[in-house]
Specification:
heterodimer, A: 138 residues, alpha+beta, Heat Shock Protein 90, five-stranded antiparallel beta sheet, 29% strand, globular, B: 112 residues, alpha/beta, Transcription Regulator spoIIAA, five-stranded mixed beta sheet, 4 helices, 41% helix, 32% strand
């Protein structure tokens, strides 16, 4: 049996802390969720939402972000929905984490962290918006 | 988020309190850059009260690290909580700058 929670916020940087707090309030104490799992969940959503705010609604009227969290005994499924420009995560190159300081690029870690912390990452563009589904198993 | 600073001889200890994300990382970037411009290019960033950091925070630290070394100084980190420690390792940052478990150990290692 799963339990679903949802929050909608404006796609602006001021919403990031609110979304992280929502994840903490929803997931903390759920069996299998320790402090590191909680951090991973917050990090993945924060990075995804930052990308949406920075790129997804670029050149458009300010939009919104919907975060749904589905809790089940074996996993947590988070779906981030926006209505901005489509973005294909798998087309973005991963950063070189072995690079020395001189060769370090300042960007690219957001998506990398999402893939490193989540067990499944799926992206779908539909008429009802862009849906990024993140699954964490335990 | 808050930023406090104290001087320990030639080491500027910058304590960040709260979360460093895309909203607040600009403030961290500006603060560290200003210290380096003011000649304080030996910086220790105290992360012991940082409960969340994203890639935006790493970008601010990377920019300050490059700037401090260009000025003949350095930047190190201390007191990272487990979640922040994990992103420092995931990103390979622990290979390009020094990190210490506590501020006291960082100060002792600096020879100040």
């Amino acid at each position: 049996m799963s339990i679903r929670h949802q929050i909608t916020r404006a796609a602006e940087y001021q919403s990031l802390a609110t979304l992280r707090d929502f994840i903490e309030a929803t997931c903390k104490g759920h069996p299998g969720v320790d402090d590191q799992v909680l951090y991973d969940l917050k990090l993945a959503v924060d990075e995804a939402c930052t990308n949406i705010i920075t790129h997804g609604y670029a050149g458009m009227n300010p939009g919104s972000i919907i975060l749904e969290i589905d809790l089940s005994p074996q996993k947590i499924t988070m779906t981030v929905t926006d209505f901005g420009h489509a973005f294909e995560p798998c087309e973005t190159p991963m950063p070189n984490v072995e690079a020395g300081l001189e060769d370090r690029d300042t960007g690219g870690f957001g998506l990398y962290f999402i893939y490193q912390t989540m067990d499944e990452v799926d992206y779908e563009c539909t008429e009802d918006g862009n849906h990024l589904t993140l699954v964490k198993r335990f | 988020m808050e930023i406090n600073m104290r001087q320990e001889k030639q080491l500027a200890i910058v304590a960040i309190i709260g979360g460093v994300d895309a909203l607040t990382s600009g403030e961290v970037n500006s603060f560290l850059s200003q210290q380096i411009e003011d000649g304080k290019n030996r910086i220790l960033v105290d992360l012991s009260q940082v409960d969340f950091m994203s890639s935006a925070g790493l970008r601010a630290i990377l920019a300050a690290l490059k700037e401090s070394r260009q000025q003949g100084g350095d930047l190190s980190l201390a007191g990272a909580q487990p979640g922040v420690e994990k992103i420092l390792k995931m990103s390979g940052f622990t290979n390009i700058l020094k990190t210490y478990p506590t501020v006291a150990e960082a100060i002792a290692a600096s020879g100040m």
